[in-house]
Write a structure and sequence with these properties.
Length: about 500
């Protein structure tokens, strides 16, 4: 089926290409059938600080140290002066500042660097200072003008008159040092990382590049080195030959108009096997959502373990809540495995977890789905299996409800759960009916399964509807007469790919 997609929640985190078997993991064990000792961890793999030129122009004065402290649960003040704080610390985090002009605007604002007196550098520094000072109207005009003036220098070959690579190098070193200062194996994991932007402006596609360990290149590879992501993959391969492993995670794919997950190269030629393998090796994931969390099932809260979970795609994304979600599939799974005390114990041995590839085999293909609600979130409304395939050259999708709350059964004809009755009380954003489940689980068979058809399957978990945060927060002061539509928070797992039986 060509390029394959998985789920990774970029919070600011989740889907992509399959990984090649030639990439080593931490142990010699089969990574898809490792003993079931993995735990779930939540994190964010996309955050900008004052080293990103656009964040600086928009008024950010957050340092990498600030960002890591915020991820660990400490309060942070935004440019407006408002105090922000997570309700719970994260387990892992990465600062991913843009490689393009990394650290240059900050340096210009401090009079550092060989290009600090360039007219564009002065305009960018002034715009950033105005925004940071809170001069909203003037700052917006200055910012737009500065971005227009800087735009011509964002092209490879045109940047030399403005870019100071010394400032890039010093910012990159500080990013590394901050990650090392805050990495606390077993408690909080940091990754050395950055963002590669290949679009002609700040539009998609973007990719965060996450390094497995502390050894990284002297400088990040960015758009000013090449706007062609295939060059990025070649650079990553060359680093891997030196023992420096990394993954690139595309995000904002919806804004790319197709190139992020295109099956052709930049010359519009179909990807050959070598290009496909290189892409799979370097981009095993793609971001699922610009405001969620990444969930991973890993052997521990440390860099190597979480990185390896990303590479094998044992990941899921959430729109924000910390639902615990798991999916297994196999031809040798019991029909009531979801009732077992620990389905993973059998799931790893006799099946594969989310993110895996499944070949045809004797027996009945079964999927085992489990989900546990976020203790600070809303009850679960349903579990859904989403199936995708290609038919007559066209993509197809079908959604099946597989588990309902409150003892309700899925309708055999519509494959839908009945209405659980949960409603939102507009007076206080509270739930007007007690319904939903703390946990849901199911062992499911595809009623339309065709053993000859390639397909992918992923699990989607839906909460009961809740008020938007923008609606909920002002209620502390004065209720609004008109409330926006409620939202339904959710989670998505990486898919499991079934490759089809020949003949």
């Amino acid at each position: 089926m060509g390029t394959r997609a998985v789920a990774l929640g970029l919070a600011l985190l989740a889907a992509g290409c399959g990984t090649g078997s030639e990439v080593a993991v931490e142990t010699g064990a089969d990574p898809m059938r490792d003993p079931p000792r993995r735990q779930v961890y939540f994190g964010d793999l996309h955050a900008h600080t004052w080293y990103s030129f656009d964040a600086f122009i928009f008024g950010s004065r957050t340092t990498p140290d600030d960002a890591y402290r915020y991820a660990r649960g400490e309060p942070l003040r935004d440019p407006s002066g408002a105090e922000l704080q997570l309700d719970r610390p994260l387990d892992f985090f990465a600062v991913t500042d843009r490689a393009m002009f990394l650290g240059n605007p900050l340096g210009w604002s401090e009079g550092r660097g060989r290009t600090a007196d360039h007219p564009v550098a002065r305009a960018v520094a002034a715009a950033g200072a105005a925004v940071a000072a809170g001069a909203a109207v003037a700052a917006g005009e200055d910012r737009a003008a500065a971005l227009r003036e800087m735009a011509p220098y964002l092209l490879p070959g045109e940047h030399a008159a403005l870019l100071d690579r010394g400032l890039v190098r010093s910012a990159w070193q500080e990013i590394q040092q901050a990650a090392e200062r805050h990495d606390d194996p077993g408690r909080f994991t940091t990754f050395i990382a950055y963002e590669y932007t290949s679009g002609p402006d700040l539009g998609a596609p973007h990719r965060t590049v996450i390094f497995r360990g502390a050894e990284v290149p002297d400088l990040p590879f960015g758009r000013l080195d090449s706007a062609n992501p295939e060059r990025l993959w070649s650079w990553m391969d060359a680093l891997r030959d030196r023992g420096i492993d990394s993954v690139a995670i595309p995000h904002a794919a919806h804004g790319s108009g197709g190139p992020t997950l295109a099956l052709a190269d930049r010359a519009a030629s179909a990807l050959d096997d070598g290009q496909t393998d290189r892409r799979r090796r370097n981009e095993p994931l793609v971001a699922m959502t610009g405001a969620g969390l990444t969930g991973v099932w890993a052997d521990g809260n440390r860099r190597a373990a979480i990185f390896d979970a990303l590479r094998r795609r044992e990941t899921f994304a959430t729109s924000g809540p910390r639902m615990v979600v798991r999916l297994f599939a196999g031809f040798d799974l019991p029909e009531d495995l979801h009732l077992a005390g620990d389905p993973a114990e059998i799931g790893y041995v006799r099946g594969i977890p989310m993110g895996g590839d499944l070949a045809p085999a004797a027996g009945t293909l079964r999927f085992v789905a489990t989900a546990l609600m976020d203790p600070l979130g809303a009850p679960l409304q349903r579990l859904q299996m989403v199936k995708g395939w290609v038919e007559n050259g066209e993509p197809r999708e079908r959604v099946y409800d597989v588990a309902c709350p409150d003892g309700q059964a899925v309708d055999a004809d519509s494959h839908r759960c009945p209405d659980a009755g949960a409603r939102i009380d507009p007076s206080d954003c509270g739930a007007s009916a007690e319904s939903g489940a703390r946990q849901l689980a199911a062992t499911w068979q595809d009623p339309d399964f065709d053993p000859h058809q390639e397909a992918f399957y992923y699990l989607r978990v839906l909460e009961n509807r809740t008020c938007r945060r923008s609606t909920r927060d002002p209620l502390e002061a004065a209720p609004r007469d008109e409330l926006p539509e409620p939202v339904q928070e959710r989670a998505w797992t990486s898919p499991i790919w079934y490759h089809g039986q020949a003949g």
